[in-house]
Structure formats: C-alpha cells, structure tokens
Amino acid sequence: MALKDLFESRGRFVTETYLQDLINRKARAYFRELETLEKLPTYPGLEDLIFKLQGLQCKLAVVSGALTAEIEVVLDRLNIRNLFSVIVAGDDITTSKPEPDGYLLGIERLKTAFPELNLQPQDCLAIEDTIAGLTAAKRAGISVVGIANTYPFHMMQRWANWAIDYFTDLELDRIQEQFDKASPDNAPT
C-alpha cells in the first residue's frame, strides 16, 4: 500500500485502523472536491484516445492505486465508464506499483471476461505516467508507453518502451503494428 510505504520510508509505523481512517478521510475529501467541479479536468486528448481505442475493438482496463469508488465516479462523470471492461483499484490488491500485482490481476480479469482472446501480457499495452507504473507494467510483461504528464519526456523515454508528450501523440497504427508483430492472432487489448 503506497500510503503505508510512505509512512514507513519516513520512519513512522501506523496501525491498519489508522491507515484505513486516513484512506477514508482522503476519499471523502476527494468526493467533496469532485462535487464542486462542474467539469472534471482531464489531460488533453485522453477522452478522444479512449474512444478511438474502443472503435478499434480494444478491450480497455484501468489499473490504478485509487479506490474503486474514486475511479468509478471519475469515469461516470466523464461518461466513459461503459468503455472499460475491467477496473483494478487499490482496494483490490495488497501491494502497489511498482509491484506488478495490479496489472497481473487486470490480465486475469480480462481473460475471464474475454476467454476467446487467450490473452497474454505481451498482448497488452499499458499507458503510464509514473516510474512506479512503468516498472509495474514491465514487471508484468506488458509493453508500456510513458506519457510525460508527471515526469519529463526524457525520463519516460528511459523507462518506457516508447514515450509521448501528449495523448494526441499516441499513434494508433504504431500500437497495431506492435501487436501484429508480437502476436499475429490477437488484437490489441
């Protein structure tokens, strides 16, 4: 759990009860803040990319350290919840990124939802904006695009299979080409 790790890295050890109370307080504050926003801020090109990927029949999943309720409220507010087949949230796993557990659970859930795909990690593509996220995806055997939202492009370039500055820079034909090479029988997921 990232919050617990943060405390421990600072020499503080907290009880599970205290940690859960902090998580609940953070979630309540987050929901209150969301309620004040008429329109949620998103990264330029994100929603357009999601619709394009959906148009290509890609199976979309969210793998995040946020709580399920937090993810769902954002996806609902953006009117894109129905485009995601799977959500793996912080409350679904016991370890956080850079551990691969979230991605591995996401693959398992996609396999369950779409057994006909015979999905393997190399059939997937992650889009990440943190070093921990890039590391988690790679440890799970997933190719990863680094987007320079949180860290500069040159850092994303060092850690990712390829890097982009903006979602609008992600070329769909490059994604298709990568998966045609990796697994000619499977479509990208």
Show the helix and strand layout.
Layout: H1 2-9, H2 16-36, H3 46-55, E1 60-63, H4 68-77, E2 84-88, H5 101-113, E3 125-128, H6 131-139, E4 143-147, H7 153-159, E5 162-164, H8 172-182
Parallel strand pairs: 1-2, 3-4, 4-5
Find the CATH topology of the largest domain.
Answer: Rossmann fold
The total count of strands amounts to 5
Order of helices and strands: HHHEHEHEHEHEH
Number of domains: 2
Average pLDDT figure: 89
Report the CATH C-level class of the largest domain: Alpha Beta
User: Could you list the spans in which at least 5 consecutive residues all have pLDDT below 50?
Assistant: none
- What percent of the residues sit in helical stretches (DSSP H or I)? 40-55%
Radius of gyration: 17 Å
- Number of H- or I-type helical stretches: 8
User: What is the end-to-end distance?
Assistant: 27 Å
CATH architecture of the largest domain: 3-Layer(aba) Sandwich
- Overall spatial form: globular
Strand order of the largest sheet: 3-4-5
Structural class determined from secondary elements: mainly alpha
Largest sheet: 3 strands, parallel
Beta percentage is 5-15%
- CATH superfamily placement of the largest domain: HAD superfamily/HAD-like
Task: Describe, in plain words, how this protein is organized in 3D.
- This protein has helices spanning 2-9, 16-36, 46-55, 68-77, 101-113, 131-139, 153-159, 172-182, and strands spanning 60-63, 84-88, 125-128, 143-147, 162-164.
- It has 189 residues and is mainly alpha-helical.
- It folds into two domains: 1-38, no CATH class; 42-182, Rossmann fold.
- The strands form two sheets. It has a three-stranded parallel beta sheet, covered by helices on one side. Strands 1-2 form a two-stranded parallel sheet.
- Strand 3 (125-128), helix 6 (131-139) and strand 4 form a beta-alpha-beta unit.
